[in-house]
Specification:
single chain; 15 strands; Rossmann fold; Quinone Oxidoreductase, Chain A, domain 1; alpha/beta; six-stranded parallel beta sheet
Length: 343
Amino acid sequence: MEKSSNPLIISEIELPSDLLNGQVLVEVITSGLCGAQINEIEAVKGPDKFLPHLLGHEGFANVLQIGPGVTNVAPGDQVVMHWRPGIGIQSLPPVYKYKGAPLNAGWVTTFNNHAIVSENRITKISSANHDKNIIPLLGCALTTALGVLKNDAQIIQSDSLLIFGVGGVGLLLIKIAKILGVENITVVDIYKEKLEKAIELGASKTILFTDKNQTSNSLLESFGSKLPTVVIDTTGNTIAIEICYEISAPNARVILVGVPTHGKKASIYTLPLHFGKILKGSEGGHSRPEKDIPYLLKLIETDILYFNDYPTQSFSLNEVNDAISQLKSGVAGRMIIDFTKRP
């Protein structure tokens, strides 16, 4: 990424000659494309101080080489790449070179064929016949969905759940909630196609978002006196955030996953916070990769968590800007960059 709000550049970069303490060299197999990358590209959180830089934070990779001090993985291991810190050393970020100058990267990047990552940003998994389009989701989308429900919302079977935005994470919230025994699930989105997919994955009711008044009235009519007890916004839209807060039970847990554009503010009446309502932002569901990835992988391996109804689209690295356009257009599911695929 050279400039904000511009297409990504596909080019050659130079890797450091040696690995530092706690660093691991991996060959990326597949990477998910997350809404967080759209936010990065569009500078949603404000001016980007680190340009140019690499992107990506959920991936599936082979370990090629380990640096000093690394004990949790070895060459030949398959790993999930994740942005939440797990076990192992937190190394210094690598310093790549691009056009002869330093190129910024964090502890993990996944939009590059080869990446140097921190030991605590990868988790070893069994070298089985994994679905390469699904394993990257363990690095962010799946662990976030699980963590938001279990850690942030502390959801139980009797809760009624309202989800604003059913993109990649929103659809997974439905799947995980169903596994946790939650039956009453309502979703809101601006795209009819996403609402249809939400029903297919197990949502009880859907509401098409139009404007604040009409959407609020539709939700009130749908819920009656039994307002939802857990409300999750994945959109970052300030109007959606206000509705989530207002159209929820007095003791509701309102969890914000999406991030508003820099400078945009939601307006709420704070009194309900004094009488039991909870409003909080989520940092990746406060997931613990070393615990949550094996748990989710076990659900996948035993067919409790399955993905024949979850849409993914695969793109080569050279097609990454097409994948970004698809994600921004509202296509349901997850866009996957497949490094084994040629355009």
